[in-house]
Amino acid sequence: MQRGTLDLWVGLFVLAGIGALVILGLKVGNLGSFSAAETYVVYAEFDNIGGLKARAPVKSAGVVVGRVDGISFDTKVYKAKVKLNIEKNYPFSKDTAASVLTAGLLGEQYIGLETGADSDMLKDQDKITLTQSAVVLEKLIGQFLYSKASEGGAKQ
Amino acid sequence: MATDSLVEIRNVTYAYGKRVVLERIDMAIPRGKVVAIMGISGSGKTTILRLIGGVLRSQQGEVIVDGQSVNALDREGLYALRRRMGMLYQFGALFTDLSVFDNVAFQIREHADLPETMVRDLVLMKLHAVGLRAAHASMPGELSGGMARRVALARAIALDPMLMLYDEPFTGLDPIALGVTANLIRALNIALGATSIVVTHDVAEALEIVDYVYYLSDGRIVAQGTPDEMRAHTDPLVHQFVHGEAEGPVSYQYPSRPFAEEMRL
Amino acid sequence: MMLGRNALSVRGIGANTIDAVWRLGYASRFLGLTVGHSGTCARRPRLVVREVYYTGVLSLIIIIVSGLFVGMVLGFQGYQTLVTYGSESALGVLVSLSLVRELGPVVAALLFASRAGSAITAEIGLMKATEQLAAMEMMAVDPIARVIAPRFWAGVISMPLLAAIFSAMGVFGGYLVGVELIGVDQGTFWSQMQSAVDVREDVLNGVIKSCVFGFAVSWIAVFEGYDAPPTAEGVSGATTRTVVTSSLAILGLDFILTAFMFRGV
Questions:
Q1: Domain span holding position C78
Q2: Which pLDDT band holds residue B1 (cuts at 50, 70, 90)?
Q3: By the 8 A CB rule, do B86 and B169 touch?
Q4: Closest alpha carbon to B184 in B201, B144, B194, B95
Q5: Kind and range of the H or E element at A41?
Q6: What residue ranges do the domains of chain A occupy?
Q7: Per the CB < 8 Å rule, is A9 touching C53?
Q8: Which residues of B touch C136 (CB under 8 A)?
Q9: Which CATH number is B32-52+68-262 given?
Q10: Chain C interface, Cβ < 8 Å to B
Q11: Residue-level pLDDT at C9
Q12: What is the pTM of this model?
């Protein structure tokens, strides 16, 4: 193996390796969807966030408009405080409603936003007041049993 | 320090763990001479070469090469000393992934900053000295044992060392190759103006070409002298070795229980 | 390793454990030596480039073919299981996450250890057995800097690249089976995959894993080669040890890394 050919093969190998990494990052992973777009921060408080995680999508009408930046616990009101990063070109009204929804039946949880009628828009560091917590299965079952029981009692 | 001795070994003792291999050895290798260190296998001959090269460090005593104490040298100093030494290993120890040319050129390229044209000239000169200029493009795997050893010799003399060390250079060679090698050792010593130490147990060839002989047995120098003195030596141990006798102080049978006892007679 | 009759007794296990710990310490010192003598690699990158060819480029065939097959099998098996839950659209997610997080780094590392790791061990062991390393040392060229360090760094560099190629080929194999052969929707395959695989969490962690594996395998390979007894059995035993120790190290490290990296997910 002459010196020249050897170098060529090594160069190709390194290129192939880096290329594979790039492919993995872009095509397989979500590097390509990292928007360089600017975002503004909005807070929302929930009684229960269920299985919501950081970097979960924030969607409105099914379209991703932002990401969950962080989740913390507010000890003043004993609620979950979620920090949302929403892209600057998607303004939402001050009376927007935020809910914790589930993708599919047993899928990941995300934040769904429904804009309201207010003409004033949410600004950076604002707080969404209308929130709906995640559906907790146990509570749902409890509600169902309770309603069934009261139905049975009312009939008698 | 005597200026006519290139290598001096003073009161050196060396042990591999608990096994004492050399005990209070005193040797002086005069400049410009070819000296043989002989002895039966395992008598510590190769250990002496390793001590001279600084690969091993004696537990006791001093090894002085060209006025420098080898044990006291740091890494830099040791490497500087080794650049002035050449060592020929028993089976050549050529670098199998490099061609003959690259093998001989190895030291030149590593230690001297010469243009490739000069390197080429030097390499071909050295190969010519050992008679193998035509083999410069071959790989070590393609060479016979004798040829490989000659290439290794060319590699060892690449930087014109002042001291040449030969570890069993005559082992396993055919009679012609034996004669060639013996002549080369002598001729190179004169041509390089160097000093040579030959470790061997090939008595016939060695006594033809060397100026002085040290005979080791059991880690001690049992006899020393010129080849004629060795041939005429009266000590039974030396006599047995020099004349290749089957029986003598070194017995034929490895120490064991009496044969009759072993065979339950 | 002493594996005598008392190997399974308490004494034997104790002795083997102490032996292993001692060996680990010795190997760590050797690693320090290798890294410390890597200056030559930085000054003469051609040495490393040459070794990257022998460890990386020559492993490409096995990596590419294995990656492809593993991906295809994942496609088949994954589909069989997912279709029973009506979730075959998640095939892309299954294939890509399995490969990027686990199979890519681990399987590629195991293949690398068997092919390149054993070759490195054998080469270094043979060089030691034929006295090439000793000859180099006597020619005032540091064998650790010239022979060991380049092979070590070549392994460290090659491993992540090979793991990435493995994962990429695997995803392609899963695509071939899932979309082309079975008929899962192409758009769903890729879009679900893209939304599930996170660059930081999954791809990057996989790369970190393969870097750690590369470091471990290269370390084991050069150490076993350097430490091998200079005989035929010694070298063959060392080669076997490289593969076995590397495999165990890879799987053990994988467990530790996975536990740390994927805790919260």
A1: 26-259
A2: very low
A3: no
A4: B194
A5: strand A39-46
A6: 1-34, 35-141
A7: yes
A8: 95
A9: 3.40.50.300
A10: 126-127, 130-132, 134-141
A11: 80
A12: 0.82
